[in-house]
Amino acid sequence: MEATVPRRKSPRDDSVAGYAFIAPNLLIFAAFTLLPFVFTVATSFTDWDYTQGFGAIRFNGGHNYLEIWKDKWFLDSLKNTVFYVAGTVPVTIGIAVVLATVIDRAVAGKDLAKLLLFIPYISNIVAVSIVWTVLLAPSGPLAKAALAVGFRMPVWLADPHWVMTAIVAMSVWLGVGYAVMIYSAALGGIPEELYESGDIDGAGPFQKFFCITLPMLSHTTFFLTVTLIVAGFKVFGQIFTMTQGGPASSSHVLVYYIYTAAFRFFRMGYASTISVVLFAFLLGVTVLQWRGQRKRED
Amino acid sequence: MRKSALSFLALSLAFSILPLAAAPIRLLMWGGVPPESGPQLVCDAFNKEFASKGISIEYERFVNDDQGNMKLETNLLAGGDIDIYITYTMDRLRKRSTGNMALNLEPFMKKTGFNLDTAIGAEGAMISRIDGTTYGVASKTYNNGFWVNKNMFDAAGIPVPKSWTLDEFKAITRKLTKGSGDSKVYGAFLQTNSYKTLAAEFAGVNLGGNAVYSKDHKSTAIDNPVFEKALGTIVELMNDGSIPSHADSLSQKLQGAALFTSGKVAMVFGSWLYRDIKNVASYPHDFVAAYVPLPSDNSKAYYMNGGPGDQVCINPKSKNVEAAWTFVKWYVEGGIIPMAPFGRFPLYTKVDMAKLEATALAGVERYFDRASTVNGFLTPAKTFQVETFADPQVQAVLAEEFELAMLGSKAVKQALADAKRRSDPILAAKP
């Protein structure tokens, strides 16, 4: 009698099973991310008023990619977005690392402090924006308090020179709680022995902060820098609610201009071009993050 | 067996068709006016009159701003939930007509013997058509201008003008400005936070419709000195504190109705505020409001700002287009009258004016100066500033440059030159 040998599982069987498992996710990804992305890239080479239907799509080569560099709205949006990122990222990280360290060293009320800081981050952006609009108004509490001590504040949201600063300040307040949470988790991972040896060597609190805490948090800082830059390039909610890109174009940012070009100017092709350029910026940041991470791991 | 099966099938079909044939039609209408400001009364009247014919209508408000209109258009593109809607500007009517969001109404007009020019006049017909085809029937008209506090005019010894030039407007505004701090009364409020291109409206009163654009729409015409005079007047009044600054208007989101009825300003731009001035419960006051049209330096012709509007459109995806047209025709031919007390007056040429005047001022006579309100506000002007072309990018450029001038960030001349420099290439590049 011949012994039956169980059939060996081929690597192909494993592949089929693997693809079957990821198929639902892949399909959803293809339908809602990949295809729209491909469509956006294709439309970016067209002049398309979407209200006229698909028949109105006109291929115009790379004209849109040349036009954006002469477009005041795009250049203002790019400048304001860079200002926003350059303002929010370092300030948010700077405040968060100090707050997280102070909270970590505090004896009581750590969780409550973290919760209070985190609330703005999970609050509705429209509600928060309305509160800040009232807060920053010339008749609002901030202006009145400043006037009481003899200082006249700018008309934040109606002054082309100050409006982005006001938006940055509000966004820092909004995002600092998230960064504190991430830093707090990372602080728990720093071995206590390092601080004890610092004590033995006679290090003060500032020395310990700069020579132990900050270097040990560098991975987290790197992670936060990248995620906040990406989030900063995508800012929209507060601009839409508080300023509508104004006064004039002084608070136009890239995503707001994508919205304006598509839904106010009906230029879907041009809006797609700006989307692709924004994607390229974000891709650049992500590639830098990958390289940085790989270097650190090596 | 086969016979009974066939009978069953026939009965099933009959029962499934019968309810459809007898099903009442419920129309849905979207408009920018709050339901309590007239539309609900219109719907109630229609529902009463057409109950026997099995047609009724329901009204839903959308906020008539960029976001609200986008919401409306998204709904129109998505399907046929909305049957009827109101379009408020020509650029939007054009977009909707060419974007399969507004139905061609010509076949319905022909079928029901509705002659557009006879029914709503030449200017009404002009803004109802896109490239010669009717896509929305203009239903209302109004004379835009200022509401002025007659008590303040009387106290200052200034007669309420029937017409005025920009310089006269400036002089009166300055004369009516008094006090300081919290007790300051401004001569006027121009609502520039919402109407950033107000100077173009002022210019249009002098020049007529489409004043911003050249005849072929390939460039702008804002180098006309009338624009500089209009924008310059507004900026001058802001700079000397006779009207609230644009910065205050923006940052405090100032609203004309509240400022005017609380006596903080002597004059307010926007005759649509008629419905707020009437609403004494929400805006308590006891002075008399008089109407004055916008100032113009043109002694030969006056192009009334405002004019025909509220084009009633039908969604091409509506399942009840016949019933929807029944409503549109009924509405335009006088169904709109319940809107009059709220500041929307019928454009229909055969409407009973005496009845309209009585309806509009019933119960609120003491809050309005009857002579200026009836003769200036309610009686349709002879010529209107009708805008049939507007480019959204150029409008955005104008809003930005005018805003910079009003904020003092740019000189008026420079702002207008920059507006032209930025706008002309946009128009030249259009097919």
Could you explain how this protein is built, in words?
The complex is a heterodimer of chains A (298) and B (431). Chain A has helices spanning 11-43, 63-67, 72-105, 110-122, 125-136, 141-148, 163-187, 192-200, 205-216, 218-233, 237-242, 254-263, 268-297, and strands at residues 46-47, 58-59. Chain A has 298 residues and is mainly alpha-helical. Chain A has a single domain (76-297), classed as Orthogonal Bundle (MetI-like fold), CATH 1.10.3720. Chain A has a two-stranded antiparallel ribbon. Chain A is flat, with a radius of gyration of 25 Å. Chain B has helices at residues 2-22, 39-49, 66-78, 90-98, 106-111, 116-126, 150-156, 166-176, 198-207, 225-239, 246-251, 256-261, 274-278, 321-335, 353-361, 370-378, 392-406, 412-428, and strands at 25-31, 55-61, 84-87, 129-130, 133-134, 137-141, 145-149, 267-269, 289-293, 309-314, 345-346. Chain B has 2 domains: 22-141 and 307-351, D-Maltodextrin-Binding Protein, domain 2 (3-Layer(aba) Sandwich); 145-305 and 384-428, Periplasmic binding protein-like II (D-Maltodextrin-Binding Protein, domain 2). In chain B, strand 4 (129-130) and strand 5 form a beta hairpin. The chains are: A mainly alpha (298), B alpha+beta (431). The interface between A and B is medium-sized, with 23 and 25 residues.
Which two protein chains have the largest interface (Cβ within 8 Å of the partner's Cβ), and how many residues from each? A-B, 23 and 25 residues
In total, the number of domains of chain A comes to: 1
- Global structural class of chain A: mainly alpha
**H/E order of the elements of chain A?**
HEEHHHHHHHHHHHH
How would you name the CATH homologous superfamily of the largest domain in chain B?
Periplasmic binding protein-like II
- Flag low-confidence runs of chain B: 13-20
CATH class of chain A: Mainly Alpha
The low-pLDDT segments of chain A are: none
Order of helices and strands of chain B: HEHEHEHHHEEEEHHHHHHEHEEHEHHHH
What percentage of the residues of chain A does DSSP assign to strands (E)? under 5%
Q: Can you count the beta strands of chain A?
A: 2
End-to-end CA span of chain B: 69 Å
Helical fraction of chain A equals over 70%
| Biggest sheet record of chain B | 6 strands, mixed
Strand order of the largest sheet of chain A: 1-2
| Percent of residues in beta strands of chain B | 5-15%
Q: From the helix content, strand content and strand pairing of chain B, which structural class follows?
A: alpha+beta
Per the CATH scheme, the topology name of chain A is: MetI-like fold
Please tell me the overall pLDDT of chain B: 91
- CATH superfamily name of chain A? MetI-like
CATH uppermost class of the largest domain in chain B: Alpha Beta
